[in-house]
Amino acid sequence: LPEGGVFALPEDSRIIGLIYTSKMNKMKRYFGMLRSTKESVSCLQTLTVGLKQQVRTERSRLEAEIKQTASEALQAVQKWKDVQLSQLSQLEARFSSSQEEVDRVHKRRVALEIAMQMAREVHRVPFLEQYCTLDKVVETLEAPVDEQSYDMESTSRGCGLRSVCLIVIYTAPPTGPQLANDWRIHRRKKHLLLGNKRNVAQWVVLSHVVNPSHFYVSYVAEKREREILEKKIDLFCCADGCLFSSSDVVETGATVFAREGRGLWSRARVLEVFQSGCVEAVDVCPAGRLDRLRLFFLDSGLGKSLDIHREEETAASSLKAVNDHLRKVEEGVKVELRCFAPQAIRCSLKDLVPYDPTKGWSREAQLEFLSVVGSAAVKMRPMGQDRDSLLVDLRKAPVDQSSDVPISIREYLVFIEVARFYSPVNLGRWPLLFHPPKYPEVNTELDAVVSHINSPADFYVQLVDNMEFVLLSTKLQDYYNATTVSAEKELTIYCPVMEQACVARYEDGTWYRARVVGHPGGRKVEVHYVDFGNKKTLPVSDLRKIKDEFFALPSTAIHCCLSGVSPLDAETWSDACRNRFIRLALQKLLTVVATGNVPKAEPLPVKLLVSGPNGPPGDIAELLVREELASFKEGIESAAAGEEFAIWDPPLDQAWVPEGGDAADRSSSGEKEEFRLRLPDQLKDVKVRVSHVNSPGSFYVQFTQNNAQLRRLCQLVEEECALMEPEEVLWKAGMFCGALVDGVWERGRVCSDAASANFIQVMRCDHGNKVKLPVGNLRSLPSSLTGSLALECALTDIRPAGGCSTWTATACELISFYLTGASAVLTIKEVTGEPVPVTLFCSNKTGVLVNVADFLAGEGLALKERKPRGAAVQTSTQTDARPLGIETQTDGSDGEKRKEQTPSAPPVSAAASVPPRVSAPKPAPRTIMSAEKVTTELYRPPELPGLGPIQMSVSAIGEDGVIYGRTGTAERLLEQLRQRIQQRLDSLPEQKPYTWKSVQGCAVIGPDMLWYRGQLLEVLGGHVKVQYVDSGLVENIPVVHVHPMLLCADVPQLCLPCQLHGVAPVGGRWQRDAVALLRELLLNRCVNLQVTELPSDPRDPFTVELYLDGLSLSRILCHHQHASECGRADASPVLLVDDWDIDSKDLRDPEEPMLGPFVYPDLPRGGGRFGVRVKHLRTPNELFLWLSDGAAEVEVGGETLEGALTRVNADVGALQPLTSFRQGGPCLAEYRDGKFYRAKMLKFSSVSPVCVLVQHVDFGSEDTLPTSRSEAPPPQEDTYRRPCVQSFELKVIV
Question: What span, in angstroms and rounded, lies between the C-alpha atoms of 766 and 194?
Answer without folding.
Answer: 60
